[in-house]
């Protein structure tokens, strides 16, 4: 059993829900990535397109050329300054992912779980890159506003059996696959809470699990409408319980705080 991997979120977009485009310029993004690495991040997740559920479904997909123009200089620049850095690319488009791998990324993070571009599986297989498959009920721009599930944990597990099967059929190796239940994507407040509570059921599928509750809107609802940058305590609680439930990777914005928290949670879990 390995300690949980701390994934630092790096949004190089002008309209991120959590940081308002603070790192849209490559130089600033690279500085932020270096800061997160120094604070304890094991993996930097670079994303060039905002996927805020409130507006994402109503907008056209970002042009792949623009998305590549945002992320590739950051990935190349970070590798040049800090060789060996583990970088994932947060995209659901295979051509963007291919460019990111060429720039130095080593992990694919597909929020559509192969639902948007099946070529992502072929790319992962050819490159031998780990691929994170996220659950969402629909496609990136067709999320239901009032999601309905029978039993949410069982429904997500069934979804992953299908998507993992697609990946394996494309040549992706079992050891390359990571599962992300998609906290905040097509789930309401109580569904998000239940996912965290029932992470052990997802772990039982036999793959590493990523949990990404950081600063999500369901925490704001629990904290009297707190904005994204004032959800630290809520994120800490959700990350702690995710680790207790078996999460192998935690995706976070506040890296220094969460890396220290993860170290203590892991020690308790192992005790």
Average of per-residue pLDDT values: 93
Number of strands: 8
CATH superfamily: Dihydropteroate synthase-like
CATH architecture: Alpha-Beta Barrel
In terms of structural class, how would the helical and strand content be classed? alpha/beta
Radius of gyration in whole Å, from Cα?
17 Å
Distance between the termini: 12 Å
Number of domains: 1
CATH class, named Alpha Beta
Shape: globular
> Which spans of ≥5 residues are poorly predicted at pLDDT below 50?
none
Largest sheet at a glance?
A: 8 strands, parallel
Q: Remind me, CATH topology? A: TIM Barrel
Please tell me about this protein's structure:
Helices cover 45% and strands 13% of the residues. By secondary structure, it is an alpha/beta fold. An 8-stranded parallel β-sheet has the order 6-5-4-3-2-1-8-7. The model has no long low-confidence stretch (mean pLDDT 93).
């Amino acid at each position: 059993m390995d300690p949980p991997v701390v994934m630092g979120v790096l949004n190089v977009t002008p309209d991120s829900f959590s940081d308002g485009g603070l790192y849209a310029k490559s130089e600033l993004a690279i500085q932020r990535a270096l800061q997160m690495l120094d604070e304890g991040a094991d993996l930097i997740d670079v994303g060039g397109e905002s996927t805020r559920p409130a507006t994402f479904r109503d907008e056209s997909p970002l042009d792949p050329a623009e998305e590549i123009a945002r992320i590739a200089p950051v990935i190349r620049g970070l590798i040049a300054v800090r060789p060996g850095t583990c970088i994932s690319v947060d995209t659901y488009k295979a051509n963007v992912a291919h460019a990111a791998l060429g720039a130095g990324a080593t992990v694919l993070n597909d929020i559509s779980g192969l639902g948007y571009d099946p070529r992502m599986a072929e790319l992962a297989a050819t490159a031998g890159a780990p691929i994170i498959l996220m659950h969402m009920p629909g496609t990136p721009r067709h999320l239901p506003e009032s999601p309905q599930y029978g039993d949410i944990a069982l429904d997500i597990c069934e979804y992953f059996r299908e998507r993992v099967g697609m990946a394996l059929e494309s040549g992706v190796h079992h050891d390359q696959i990571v599962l992300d239940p998609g906290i905040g994507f097509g789930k309401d407040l109580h569904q998000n809470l239940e996912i965290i509570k029932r992470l052990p059921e997802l772990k039982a599928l036999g793959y590493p699990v990523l949990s990404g509750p950081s600063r999500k809107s369901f925490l704001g609802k629990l904290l009297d409408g707190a904005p994204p940058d004032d959800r630290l305590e809520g994120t800490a609680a959700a990350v702690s319980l995710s680790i207790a439930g078996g999460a192998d990777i935690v995706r976070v914005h506040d890296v220094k705080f969460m890396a220290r928290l993860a170290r203590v949670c892991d020690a308790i879990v192992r005790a």
